[in-house]
Design brief:
By secondary structure, the chain is α+β, with helices and mostly antiparallel strands. It has one domain: Creatinase/methionine aminopeptidase superfamily (Creatine Amidinohydrolase), CATH 3.90.230. Helices cover about 25% and strands about 20% of the residues. The protein contains 4 helices and 15 strands. The strands form 5 sheets. Strands 1, 2, 4 and 5 form a 4-stranded antiparallel β-sheet that branches. It has a 3-stranded antiparallel β-sheet with strand order 3-12-11, with no helix packed on it. A hairpin with a 2-residue loop joins β4 and β5. α1 runs antiparallel to α2 and α3 packs antiparallel against α4. The termini are far apart. Bound molecules: 2-amino-4-trifluoromethylsulfanyl-butyric acid (MF3) and cobalt (II) ion (2 copies). One cobalt (II) ion binds next to loops. One cobalt (II) ion binds next to β4 and β5. It holds the Pfam family Peptidase_M24. GO terms for molecular function: metal ion binding; metalloaminopeptidase activity. Keywords: Aminopeptidase, Hydrolase, Metal-binding, Protease. InterPro entries: Creatinase/aminopeptidase-like (IPR036005), Pept_M24 (IPR000994), Pept_M24_MAP (IPR001714), Pept_M24A_MAP1 (IPR002467).
Length: about 290
């Protein structure tokens, strides 16, 4: 097992600057995204901009991932992703979203999601770390995350990360126009077969002009919800979180954000932003090197 220091909230760096000329989402100033809208089909212009936003987010994630090494602080990783986004003219969507203070979410081991990058927390050999990046460009968002190993990790962590990657693929493969949103959770539940916990308190979401629109995606099977139907032009995220133990989450009181497993078991996550097409889906958050 790793000898890493216990995870706890650390001091934050000063708020990162975004150049004046970069267009900001409505919540950037006061933190409130306002009313959520029902999902609708993207216009050609929205879709073109979502491709760019998604490409920028993917590039920023890859750059942060390349900076992972034992002893590097989560704040340093956040700075790398922030730098790529502003260099490419995008606003880091999480910055001041409902008051969230940083440009990425970085979630280590038992942290499920919404870990806040800070100046004291370092990634250490044997950790698994999820980096979640969302970019806002041309009035729309693109959102993805991946879990990475820091150096050599144990076999349980390797298997968990592999299963989570496949759960994302299986979830995406369940999406087709005319199908129901609950097909995603149904397919993931069937694939996981009880081998891992499937987090149910956080889910995927419709995305576009709203970071999170009115569409909610469960990654476990939930017969009461998910009756909505997919239609061409819809854009959403699939972002399963699998755990080695309990699927139940609690949020750190100290910061109101960091979600951890109740039993301290480790969690992995993988996220893509996808488009529903006439025949199936297309993944938008794949960086095409230029
Ligand atoms: N990117 C996260 C998601 O996948 C949301 C982060 S919201 C924040 O939906 F406020 F925590 F940053
Ligand atoms: Co998301
Ligand atoms: Co995300």
């Amino acid at each position: 097992m790793s000898t890493r220091p216990t995870l706890r909230p650390g001091p934050l760096s000063p708020r990162r600057k975004v150049p004046r000329e970069i267009a900001r989402p409505s919540y950037a100033l006061l933190g409130e995204p306002g009313p959520t809208h029902p999902p609708r089909a993207r216009t050609p212009e929205e879709l073109a901009n979502m491709r760019t936003a998604s490409d920028i987010a993917s590039e920023a994630l890859a750059a942060a991932a390349a900076a992972i090494a034992p002893g590097v602080t989560t704040d340093e990783l956040d700075a790398v992703a922030h730098g790529v986004m502003i260099d490419r003219g995008a606003y880091p969507s999480t910055l001041n979203y409902r008051g969230y203070p940083k440009s990425t979410c970085i979630s280590i081991n038992e942290v499920i999601c919404h870990g806040i990058p800070d100046l004291r927390t370092t990634v250490e050999e044997g950790d698994i770390v999820t980096i979640d990046v969302t970019a806002y460009y041309g009035g729309v968002h693109g959102d993805l995350n991946q879990t990475f190993a820091v150096g050599e990790v144990d076999q349980h962590a390797k298997d968990l990360m592999e299963a989570t990657r496949r759960a994302l693929d299986v979830g995406i493969a369940a999406v087709r126009p005319g199908g129901q949103v609950r097909d995603i959770g149904k397919a993931i539940e069937k694939f996981v077969r009880g081998r891992y916990g499937i987090v149910h308190q956080f889910g995927g979401h419709g995305i576009g002009p709203d970071f999170h629109d009115g569409l909610h995606v469960q990654h476990n099977f939930d017969r009461r919800g998910g009756g909505e139907r997919f239609f061409p032009g819809m854009t959403l995220t699939v972002e399963p979180m699998l755990t080695l133990g309990s699927p139940d989450a609690r949020v750190w009181e100290a910061d109101g954000w960091t979600a951890v497993t109740v039993d301290g078991s480790r969690c992995a996550q993988e996220e893509h932003t996808i488009l529903v097409t006439e025949t199936g889906t297309e993944v938008l958050t794949t960086h095409v090197p230029h």
